[in-house]
């Protein structure tokens, strides 16, 4: 058998085995939605989209499709989507997510200016129905969403697919070992892999991407824009809280909550009037976090109930979606969560771009390059554990000069890192439908 037919036969075999396994696991997807629904009610809604069953008629004119799995990826895609909306208002844009929090972020950012549905499960039939319904002319997939049927079916439908702002940690690379023969073939269907860094690009090549199809364009997260909402919220917060000293715990996960409470208790021993702004990563943790603070003996305000803290509140829980970035300027120091437990960290550039000193825990495998660059520039403090994070926050609250120097380095680094947006637009523009 010749090489090309043999390779196609191997691809069909691997795709068949993968798809058969997914169909056998189909009941598990229902269980997963129900189980997640007990924690977050939105998972019990819009099930049809999860299996590519739609009530709206199919699109006649097609669309440009952007896939961003959840909140972090939606935020990363925001500069690109905003640029497309501004430069090509004639385009119909479809933004898909997987999580309800990502869905809520899409609507908060763009409302009805973009179409939005959940991406279906990677079942071959569902993916084909999705592509047939929306008829994408171009697929822009954010970061590390390597769904084999999604990529193969896009190729089969003649849809050029780009992996944009692509990142791949060593940990994720190891995780693909079992599916590597299939993933490698799926990667080779991509028109281009636009990697965040040289290291990310090299890992994609090791996973199976064609070296000539991999480009290093930088990280879209550097192209963050600071809008007027952040300034308005900061001014209102200062007015309502009486200008009190504040720090923020951002995007925290359940195993980090006890640490945040312990740190705030320590800090208030030195600054009794200190306010904690707290934004849990997931909506199902909003109420438990507020309750834990009440049980710690603190007076608690929340964004939904009181809108603003007053002079007597000790903790302000940001229990709304999509507003975290606007609250960063209210604080002197930001602890970015997902880093005291092995989640891999969250976006460190947002607080830096907004002029806030940044502290994180040691688990940063999702942001290795950014964390390294910020650390080397003196724009980041990395604490090995809860005590070290608390020490770093306290030192920065106490030392105005050190904090100012750190903020200046963070702003410089963000400014120097810009450019991925322009390079990405230049890459995809030839594939856009004609105006």
TrEMBL record:
Pathway: Bacterial outer membrane biogenesis; LPS core biosynthesis. Its EC number is 2.4.99.12. GO terms for molecular function: transferase activity. Residues 45-224 form the 3-deoxy-D-manno-octulosonic-acid transferase N-terminal domain. Gene3D superfamilies: 3-Deoxy-D-manno-octulosonic-acid transferase, N-terminal domain (3.40.50.11720), Glycogen Phosphorylase B (3.40.50.2000). Signal peptide: none annotated. The keyword Transmembrane helix applies. Keywords: Cell membrane, Lipopolysaccharide biosynthesis, Membrane, Transferase, Transmembrane, Transmembrane helix. It holds the Pfam family Glycos_transf_N. The chain crosses the membrane at residues 20-38. Its main location: membrane. It catalyses: lipid IVA (E. coli) + CMP-3-deoxy-beta-D-manno-octulosonate = alpha-Kdo-(2->6)-lipid IVA (E. coli) + CMP + H(+). It is found in: Cell membrane. Belongs to the glycosyltransferase group 1 family. Involved in lipopolysaccharide (LPS) biosynthesis. Catalyzes the transfer of 3-deoxy-D-manno-octulosonate (Kdo) residue(s) from CMP-Kdo to lipid IV(A), the tetraacyldisaccharide-1,4'-bisphosphate precursor of lipid A. This is 3-deoxy-D-manno-octulosonic acid transferase. The lineage of its organism: Bacteria, Pseudomonadati, Pseudomonadota, Gammaproteobacteria, Lysobacterales. The gene is kdtA.
């Amino acid at each position: 058998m010749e090489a090309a037919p043999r390779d196609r036969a191997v691809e069909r075999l691997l795709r068949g085995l993968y798809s058969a396994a997914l169909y056998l696991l189909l009941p598990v997807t229902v269980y997963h939605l129900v189980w997640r629904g007990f924690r977050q009610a939105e998972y019990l809604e819009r099930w049809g989209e999860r299996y590519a069953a739609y009530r709206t008629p199919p699109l006649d004119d097609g669309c440009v499709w952007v896939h961003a799995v959840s909140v972090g990826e939606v935020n990363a895609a925001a500069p690109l989507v905003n640029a497309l909306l501004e430069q090509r208002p004639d385009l119909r844009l479809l933004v898909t997510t997987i999580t309800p929090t990502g869905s809520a972020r899409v609507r908060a950012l763009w409302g009805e200016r973009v179409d939005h549905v959940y991406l279906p499960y990677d079942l071959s039939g569902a993916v084909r129905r999705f592509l047939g319904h929306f008829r994408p002319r171009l697929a822009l997939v954010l970061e590390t969403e390597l769904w084999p049927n999604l990529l193969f079916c896009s190729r089969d439908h003649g849809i050029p697919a780009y992996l944009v702002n692509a990142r791949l940690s060593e940990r994720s690379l190891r995780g693909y070992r079992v599916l590597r023969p299939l993933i490698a073939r799926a990667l080779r269907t991509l028109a281009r892999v636009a990697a965040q860094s040289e290291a990310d690009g090299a890992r994609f090549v090791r996973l199976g991407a064609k070296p000539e199809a991999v480009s290093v364009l930088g990280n879209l997260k550097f192209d963050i824009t600071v809008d007027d909402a952040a300034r308005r919220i900061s001014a209102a917060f200062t007015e309502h809280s009486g200008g009190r000293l504040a720090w923020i715990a951002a995007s925290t996960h359940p195993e980090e909550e006890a640490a945040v409470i312990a740190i705030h208790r320590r800090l208030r021993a030195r600054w009794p009037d200190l306010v904690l702004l707290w934004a849990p990563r997931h909506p199902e943790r909003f109420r438990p976090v507020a309750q834990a603070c009440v049980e710690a003996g603190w007076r608690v305000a929340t964004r939904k109930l009181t809108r603003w803290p007053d002079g007597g509140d000790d903790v302000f829980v940001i229990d709304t979606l999509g507003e975290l970035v606007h609250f960063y300027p209210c604080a002197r120091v930001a602890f970015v969560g997902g880093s005291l437990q092995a989640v891999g960290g969250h976006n460190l550039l947002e607080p830096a771009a907004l002029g806030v000193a940044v502290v994180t825990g040691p688990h940063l495998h999702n942001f290795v390059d950014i964390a390294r660059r910020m650390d080397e520039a003196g724009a980041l403090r990395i604490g090995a554990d809860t005590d070290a994070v608390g020490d770093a926050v306290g030192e920065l609250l106490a030392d105005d000069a050190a904090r100012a120097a750190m903020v200046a380095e963070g702003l410089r680094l963000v400014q120097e890192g810009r450019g991925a947006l322009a390079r990405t637009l230049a890459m995809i523009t030839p594939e856009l439908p004609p105006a």
